[in-house]
Amino acid sequence: MKKFTSVSDVENLQQIIKKALQIKENPLSEPEKGKGKTIGLVFLNSSLRTRLSSQIAAQNLGLNVLTLNAAQEAWNLEFTDGALMNGDTVEHIKDAIEVLNQYCDIIAVRCFAGMKSKEDDVNESILSQFEQHAKVPVISLESATRHPLQSLADCITITENWYFDGSSSSPQAKLSINRKPKVVLTWAPHIKPIAHAVGNSFAEWMQEMDVDFVIANPEGYDLDKNFTKNVKIIHDQEEALKDADFIYVKNWSSFDDYAKMPEVKDNWMLTNEKLENTNQAKVMHCLPVRRNVELSDEVMDGENSIIYQQAKNRIFSAQAVFSEILDELNA
Ligand code: CP
After folding, report:
1. Residue whose CA is closest, atom 4 of ligand 1?
2. Residue identifier of the C-alpha nearest atom 1 of ligand 1
3. Is 15 a known ligand-binding residue?
4. Which spans are transmembrane here (predicted)?
């Protein structure tokens, strides 16, 4: 693997899921693979899971880890090409990336959507600068339009819960289920406009999985067609959740009326009552979650939730990707 910014960088999805599940069984199976190499984790935005799971994954592979919380700890960055830097910005992103090239063998970056310019966000105005100026492999830790390490963790979580017993990746534990799971990505309420990256990315990855996938969201909240393609979009949550095996809860703002929050009359928060209509669906959320806004306490803390398992799988998703990037570097 030469870089990892979307599902298109994965040659064989089933193979990398299998690899991640093997890593989960034995996380220290390749302790020397990253020896003498450094990964730079650059965060332009906040993080709990991505930062810590990436650090654990890198350490399990023997990589040196540099973590830069750029928004708080670095100089105020300028992103515009040709800018006259006589204002608040102190260092151009091009120069920062060139310096990272001197220190790192892999650069991983988190750069959220700015949510001000649709064009900038759709065109990945920051990630594209990393891709352009980095001389080492680039990994996305969530960009304006995608969150691929999260999506891989989501695929791992669905696989182990559907095809295995939910706790083991051993082939002996394989369950004899001979139908595809129904996976529903459902929009949830929020108090402020949220970016599309997780929803887009989940939609993209589910289309590569052997699942029946539908999206439920209110009118005015359809995701970018470039990501949803021909996926069925249902504007009635109750109808969409019927017989679901997995429900992925996530908020996003309007894409058409960019970053706005059109009024929603129905209550889209996921509750235990709504789970009654499903096939005892497992509930997923990438976290952080606003309890009793996106989903109720009873769902979050209930037996259908696999949300903490999903968060744990962020380690194995990251480790599988770092390991494949190291294969390329060590070749
Ligand atoms: N799911 C996720 O990416 O969590 P963080 O934003 O805390 O990294």
Report:
1. 49
2. 286
3. no
4. none
